[in-house]
Amino acid sequence: MTVKVEASADAIPHNTLLMVGIVGSILCIYLTYLNTITGLELFSFFGGLGAVIALIWGTSTIKRLCSYGIGTGVPSAGMVAFGAGIIAMLLGTKFGIASPIAALIIAAVAGAVFGFLADNVLNMKIPVLMQSLAELSVIGALTILGFTAMATGDFTFSAISAGTISIFGFAMSSANASYLGGGVIAVAFMLGAIAIQHPFNAALGPSNTQDRTLMLAAECGFLSMIIMAVISFAFIAVGAALVGLLIAIIGWGYTYTQFIELSKRDAAAWLDAKPILETEA
């Protein structure tokens, strides 16, 4: 038997964040395809924005899941999300232009299977477990795919697995120089996993408010986006990488400032709090 405990009432319903997260993330990742259409790489930053949107949605999902008393399960939920998500993402990239949609479907199925096993075989009996793990798997897949598209300018398997090195002035193919072969995808995995775990853990408590928690999620997302923008200098044109880095820094600066303001607001609300008086016998 599980008991649901709400840390705070949410102004924005979770299902609204779910719909915005799916549509916004998929749309932003697809906008990186403008690189292929135009022959430029200036639109790569849309992948990072797609990852940030997915992470905001993911923070709401983790809060909903952890309201059933699995507070210490936040890191586990994050790792399960990105573990299932990276498998779905890699399989999805084999479908060319349909990669984002394929990754979403594969991740949803994988997450639902994990959720069913956890709920019925491990007997965790959490009402929202199956849906939450399906959501988190999709979020993991879209986050890694978004960061991948930002770093490489593409989201197909051929683009992220191909690399070249120069030997005596001759360019030669080398898988080790690619996004996958060089292990950069592991960096995207950890950046996303930490960004999805931290906001709810950091904001959890009696003064938890939804806007402050989600703002922290956006701030963590943009911070991860800065790292991916720096990595992108190795794979895309310098100008395109600079655009991504500039947008990531502006986004991080804005969300960080807003998070500090919201933290001051919530802290001020506690100034008038009074201690609980104990009755002496």
Would you give an account of this structure?
The protein has 281 residues and is mostly helical. It has 10 helices and 2 strands, in the order H-H-H-H-H-H-H-E-E-H-H-H. Strands 1-2 form a two-stranded antiparallel ribbon. A hairpin with a 2-residue loop joins strand 1 and strand 2. It is globular, with a radius of gyration of 20 Å. It starts with 13 loop residues before the first helix and ends in a 13-residue tail after the last helix. The model has no long low-confidence stretch (mean pLDDT 86).
- Rg to the nearest angstrom? 20 Å
The overall strand count is 2
Shape: globular
**How does the helix and strand content classify structurally?**
mainly alpha
Sheet-strand content, in percent, reads under 5%
Distance between the termini: 38 Å
Q: Sketch the major β-sheet.
A: 2 strands, antiparallel
Note the run of SSEs as H and E.
HHHHHHHEEHHH
Q: Output the strand order for the largest sheet.
A: 1-2
Unreliable spans: none
Helix content: 55-70%
Count the helices. How many?
A: 10
Kindly report the average pLDDT value: 86
